[in-house]
């Protein structure tokens, strides 16, 4: 009797019990299929692409990167993409902030937010197709401007930089706005009321109450919107000048993969694209600390 | 809420509403252009077309084989919705109910495919799928589309599951329900609104997902949005109105589901639910 009980006392709880105490049991295992899926189809391709980019068709292990940074047709794409993505993202954010502050006071926000979800849902291909007509020389936009006598010649708005710019505003602004709105409405209105009671003007309330609290949210909104704009592809081809001023980095990656069938080079360009996005995101999130230090989420109501 | 009534504040408000109005007006005019053009007999250099017709829909339907394309689209979307629901809801349940080592890492793993734009991870993914021979097939398109949708379902479902009281499940266990019975009779009815909302959003996102489908689709596994891209890309080969008719068909297939989805979710959730996570 003693001999049968004693070993289990020495062993303590079984492996199953010890694992359960750390949160591993049958329920935890439910996460395994999705985790394996993500590892196989997200992490593995990334790792594979990274390694593949160092195994070029010809030359040393770095020759894909050497080629990218020595061929102006390739390295210029970084500058061209940034020249599109940064102004668009800043414009979208600058427009979204005052509008979000106004819409916050609205009772029936739902209609406006529904309208703004439309371009996100329809996607860039449809927006490009629509703008091709709408902004074209015979389109309603130019026609309206000419009717009002604002211009005498139709503006050239498609197949150049401005076409892509417009499509990025149409699809990007609602995205930026809805994110901003969710951050703005997350701040306790009592804080603003307290500031108003103490005699702060509207600008002072924004500058000294809201802005410091919203800075982390704005930084994240900027990052997400920027990353979306930086990876512009269909509208740069359809609405822009894909051989000239709107030859963005995703076009270069696509051409390497599906026109030259050089998957190694395409992976290298995709890695460079990811790296530039990461660099900007890290820079923005790091500079966030320059604006405000201290608890920001404590005010969320 | 504080409302200013000074002249400056009123002018500021008027300026902002003008801006919103300008944006919405342009958006509707853009959509209106496509719809008008799709019904136009001839539309060159005038405000409105000379006459109206519906024949472009017939010609678009036959020229672009829209019957086949729509069938493929719905098959892809159906498979994506089903599989992402199965994988996503079960994983979300584990993440919502258990604390374990490495959970934060796992959440990060599910967050990244939503934060990184599809074209960035799509090219390495397409490379891998071409190596395995999956690209160009129906299942290649489904698998590629699942990469962002499984994490999307997980991140939408976690807060939904967290708000279901664990005591309810404990009570069911006390009365002898096994895990399967618990899921079918207790959790499913409680979670159904959340699952429905998540899957409808997946549906809308998959119909509109251009980049991933474009990178891995072959001629027989194109979805509608990719077919539309090729049609616009090769503009000049077909009549503009025919392409516009196809664009209208695409809009209708997307918006029907969006309208249904909006009955269950707040529009802002489409953007923010999953994206807001890193803020915390």
Automatic annotation (TrEMBL), chain A:
Protein name per its UniProtKB record: Sugar ABC transporter permease
Keywords, alphabetical: Cell membrane, Membrane, Transmembrane, Transmembrane helix, Transport
Subcellular locations according to the entry: Cell membrane
Family classification: Belongs to the binding-protein-dependent transport system permease family. CysTW subfamily.
Residues annotated as transmembrane: 26-54, 82-103, 115-136, 161-184, 209-230, 268-291
Highest taxon, organism lineage: Bacteria
ABC transmembrane type-1 domain boundaries: 78-284
Matches recorded under InterPro entries: MetI-like, MetI-like_sf
Keyword Membrane: yes
Pfam families given in the database record: BPD_transp_1
Membrane topology, as annotated: Multi-pass membrane protein
Main location group: membrane
Automatic annotation (TrEMBL), chain B:
Membrane-protein topology: Multi-pass membrane protein
Transmembrane segments: 12-35, 69-93, 105-126, 138-161, 182-208, 214-235, 247-265
Subcellular location: Cell inner membrane; Cell membrane
Primary location group: membrane
Pfam families xrefs: BPD_transp_1 (PF00528)
Source superkingdom: Bacteria
Xref: InterPro entries: MetI-like, MetI-like_sf
Record's keyword annotation contains Phosphoprotein: no
Residue ranges occupied by any ABC transmembrane type-1 domain in the UniProt entry: 70-261
Protein keywords: Cell inner membrane, Cell membrane, Membrane, Transmembrane, Transmembrane helix, Transport
Keyword Phosphoprotein in annotation: no
Homology family: Belongs to the binding-protein-dependent transport system permease family.
Protein's UniProt name: ABC transporter permease subunit
């Amino acid at each position: 009797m003693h001999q049968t009980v004693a070993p289990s006392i020495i062993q303590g709880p079984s492996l199953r019990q010890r694992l359960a105490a750390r949160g591993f049991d049958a329920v935890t295992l439910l996460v395994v299929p999705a985790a394996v899926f993500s590892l196989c189809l997200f992490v593995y391709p990334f790792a594979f692409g990274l390694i593949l980019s160092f195994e070029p068709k010809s030359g040393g292990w770095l020759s894909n990167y050497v080629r990218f940074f020595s061929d102006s047709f390739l390295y210029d794409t970084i500058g061209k993409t940034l020249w599109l993505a940064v102004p668009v993202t800043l414009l979208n954010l600058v427009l979204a902030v005052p509008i979000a502050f106004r819409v916050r006071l609205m009772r029936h926000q739902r209609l406006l937010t529904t309208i703004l979800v439309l371009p996100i849902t329809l996607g860039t291909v449809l927006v490009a197709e629509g703008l091709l007509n709408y902004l074209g020389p015979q389109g309603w936009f130019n026609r309206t401007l000419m009717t009002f006598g604002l211009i005498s010649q139709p503006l050239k708005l498609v197949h150049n930089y401005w076409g892509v710019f417009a499509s990025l505003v149409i699809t990007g602004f609602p995205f930026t706005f809805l994110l901003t709105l969710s951050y703005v409405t997350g701040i306790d209105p009592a804080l603003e009321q307290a500031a108003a009671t103490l005699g702060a003007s509207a600008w002072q309330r924004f500058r000294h109450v809201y802005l410091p609290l919203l800075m982390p949210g704005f930084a994240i909104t900027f990052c997400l919107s920027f990353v979306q704009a930086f990876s512009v592809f269909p509208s740069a081809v359809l609405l822009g000048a894909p051989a000239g001023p709107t030859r963005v980095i995703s076009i270069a990656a696509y051409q390497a993969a599906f026109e030259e069938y050089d998957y190694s080079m395409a992976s290298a360009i995709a890695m460079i694209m990811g790296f530039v996005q990461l660099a900007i995101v890290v820079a923005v999130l790091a500079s966030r600390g320059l604006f405000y230090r201290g608890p920001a989420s404590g005010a969320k109501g | 809420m504080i409302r200013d009534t000074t002249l400056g504040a009123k002018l500021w408000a008027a300026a902002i509403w003008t801006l919103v109005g300008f944006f919405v007006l342009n958006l509707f005019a853009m959509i209106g252009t496509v719809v008008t053009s799709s019904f136009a007999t001839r539309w060159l250099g005038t405000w409105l077309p000379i006459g109206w017709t519906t024949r472009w829909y017939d010609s678009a339907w036959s020229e672009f084989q829209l019957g086949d394309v729509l069938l493929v689209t719905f098959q892809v979307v159906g498979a994506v919705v089903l599989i992402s629901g199965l994988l996503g809801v079960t994983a979300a349940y584990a993440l919502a109910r258990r604390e374990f080592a490495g959970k934060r890492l796992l959440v990060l793993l599910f967050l990244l495919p939503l934060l990184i734009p599809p074209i960035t991870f799509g090219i390495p993914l397409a490379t891998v799928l071409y190596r395995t021979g999956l690209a160009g097939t129906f299942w290649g398109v489904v698998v590629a589309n699942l990469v962002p949708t499984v994490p999307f379902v997980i991140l939408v479902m976690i807060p939904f599951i967290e708000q279901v009281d664990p005591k309810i499940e404990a009570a069911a266990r006390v009365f002898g329900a096994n895990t399967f019975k618990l899921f079918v009779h207790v959790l499913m009815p409680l979670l159904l609104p959340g699952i429905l909302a998540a899957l409808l959003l997946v549906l809308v996102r998959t119909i509109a997902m251009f980049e991933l489908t474009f990178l891995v689709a072959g001629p027989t596994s194109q979805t509608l949005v990719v077919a539309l891209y090729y049609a616009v890309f090769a503009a000049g080969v077909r009549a503009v109105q025919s392409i516009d008719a196809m664009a209208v068909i695409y809009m209708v297939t997307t918006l029907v589901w969006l309208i249904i989805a909006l009955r269950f979710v707040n529009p802002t959730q489409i953007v923010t639910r999953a994206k807001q996570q890193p803020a915390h």
